[in-house]
């Protein structure tokens, strides 16, 4: 049984972000018979691609099985990364990883440019990030990571030993950590709303609640069956990420949807939040089953996320466990209740890096691996430039084809076992930490 005593009386299983921007405000529009480019998926990647295409005179239509932005784009934690996690466990050659880190830093600037250009009011701050080391050996790995990040881009990465940790985070839970200045935060649903409004102003055809089905044909001649009729397109962009399904089986077999869970506390007041986060940085950690958390945009709450379950469970079931995780980090929050608890799918790839490319004539940008705000916006934009023939060099994220996953056909049956193993490894790391 879930401990419902941690819930406020008006507890909701909708994302906290939806209080400011629900994704179901869009009216259905008639599905056109044909378009130049059909974009499947209305998240950051899909809208970024559609906006660039339309402003260059391309007739583009965006379809989504749900309300526009219903998926991870309005459900994520709102952390903005300049490549801090890129290539950590990819197994790719160092030269390839370095190229990805450099492009990830460029993609961060692209995000800032878009927010300024489109005048998107989404509480964006270049706040910096603190990465907490869950054990001493993890701290040593972060020391090597600092050198890697600073050698290739101006990340402003710095090690913070445990004795200085409370300068960044008011807890003894971690064994020191790393700060990265090229990081920040925003309100993800408002950022998505801003992209959506820009697409509307550009007169992109937007079709919510239109599920893509069977796709026939090849480049310059696709026919796509949808739940609201058939549409012809010269090009197709697959931007479904953690919600990739049977309409695109090749992609589905290469992207693993992993549920992530988030809670929002009741209002604590700005002073108390600043006591927890002295420099108001967003926080992630080095555990295999990581925590990620931050102050809310109004600095009155804590937004806390993690992998509360690797099996399919409701936010109602997992929110109390996340509350326990939060109190492990911040014992001073025991007794604080939570107003919202929700879930959404993160998309992981076999090599743990994002990808863009083409397959059977269809373009794709998939695999956020937990860094979707920046990377999916960037890869959607880059995919559009590729279709337009306006790129002067290939993206580092299309240099390697999206790899297949052994024994995986689209059903992530192995997640509970993998999750249990990761949890055990994390427990051992902390149990024997010295």
Identify the notable features of this structure and list them briefly.
9 helices, eight-stranded mixed beta sheet, alpha/beta, globular, 434 residues, FAD/NAD(P)-binding domain
Q: What would you say this structure looks like, in words?
A:
This protein is of the alpha/beta class. It has a single domain, classed as FAD/NAD(P)-binding domain. 29% of the residues lie in helices and 24% in strands. The protein is built from 9 helices and 19 strands. The protein has helices at 44-55, 94-117, 136-152, 188-201, 249-252, 270-276, 315-329, 372-388, 415-431; strands at 7-12, 34-40, 60-63, 79-81, 129-132, 157-160, 177-180, 183-185, 205-207, 212-218, 221-226, 229-238, 256-265, 282-285, 291-295, 302-306, 338-348, 355-359, 362-366. A 9-stranded mixed sheet has the order 1-17-13-16-15-14-5-7-6, with helices on both faces. Strands 2, 3, 9, 10, 11, 12, 18 and 19 form an 8-stranded mixed sheet that branches. It is globular. The model has no long low-confidence stretch (mean pLDDT 93).
Major beta sheet, specifics?
A: 9 strands, mixed
What topology, given as strand order, has the largest sheet?
1-17-13-16-15-14-5-7-6
User: What order do the SSEs take from the amino end to the carboxyl end, as H and E?
Assistant: EEHEEHEHEEEHEEEEHEHEEEHEEEHH
Helix content: 25-40%
Radius of gyration: 21 Å
* Average pLDDT: 93
CATH topology: FAD/NAD(P)-binding domain
The CATH superfamily appears as FAD/NAD(P)-binding domain
CATH class equals Alpha Beta
Number of helices: 9
| Overall 3D shape | globular
Structural class assignment: alpha/beta
In angstroms, what separates the terminal alpha carbons?
A: 36 Å
* Proportion of residues in extended strands: 15-25%
CATH architecture: 3-Layer(bba) Sandwich
Let me know the number of strands. Answer: 19
Low-pLDDT runs: none
| Total discrete domains | 1
């Amino acid at each position: 049984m879930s401990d419902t005593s941690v819930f406020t009386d008006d507890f909701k299983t909708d994302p906290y972000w939806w209080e400011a921007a629900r994704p179901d405000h869009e009216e259905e529009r008639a599905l056109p018979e044909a378009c130049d480019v059909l974009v499947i998926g209305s998240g950051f990647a899909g809208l970024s691609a559609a906006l660039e295409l339309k402003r260059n005179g391309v007739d583009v239509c965006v379809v989504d099985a749900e309300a526009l932005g219903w998926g991870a784009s309005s459900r994520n934690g709102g952390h903005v990364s300049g490549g801090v996690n890129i290539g950590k466990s990819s197994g790719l050659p160092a030269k390839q990883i370095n190229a990805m880190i450099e492009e990830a830093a460029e993609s961060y600037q692209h995000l800032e440019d878009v927010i300024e250009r489109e005048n998107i009011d989404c509480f964006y701050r270049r706040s910096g990030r603190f990465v907490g080391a869950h054990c001493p050996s993890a701290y040593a790995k972060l020391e090597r990571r600092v050198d890697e990040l600073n050698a290739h881009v101006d990340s402003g990465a710095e090690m913070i030993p445990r004795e200085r940790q409370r300068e960044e985070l008011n807890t003894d839970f971690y064994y020191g950590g790393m700060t990265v200045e090229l990081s920040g935060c925003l309100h993800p649903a408002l950022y998505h709303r801003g992209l959506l409004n820009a697409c509307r102003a550009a007169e992109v055809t937007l079709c919510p609640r239109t599920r893509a089905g069977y796709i026939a044909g090849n480049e310059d001649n696709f026919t796509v069956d949808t739940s609201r009729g058939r549409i012809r397109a010269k090009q197709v962009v697959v931007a479904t990420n953690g919600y990739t399904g049977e309409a695109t089986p090749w992609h589905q077999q290469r992207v693993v949807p992993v549920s992530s869970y988030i809670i929002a506390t009741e209002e604590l007041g700005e002073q108390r939040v600043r006591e927890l986060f002295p420099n108001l940085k967003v926080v992630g950690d080095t555990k295999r089953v990581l925590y990620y958390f931050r102050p809310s945009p109004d600095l009155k709450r804590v937004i806390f996320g993690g992998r509360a379950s690797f099996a399919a469970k409701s936010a109602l079931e997992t929110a109390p466990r996340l509350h326990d995780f939060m109190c492990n980090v911040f014992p001073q929050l025991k007794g604080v209740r939570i107003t919202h608890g929700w879930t959404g799918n993160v998309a992981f790839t076999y090599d743990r890096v994002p990808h863009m490319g083409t397959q059977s004539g269809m373009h794709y940008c998939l695999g956020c691996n937990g860094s979707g705000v920046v990377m999916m916006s960037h890869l959607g934009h880059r995919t559009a430039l590729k279709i337009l023939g306006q790129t002067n060099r290939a993206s580092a994220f299309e240099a390697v084809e999206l790899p297949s996953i052994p024994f995986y056909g689209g059903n992530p049956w192995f997640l509970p076992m993998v999750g249990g193993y990761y949890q055990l490894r994390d427990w051992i790391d902390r149990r024997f930490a010295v």
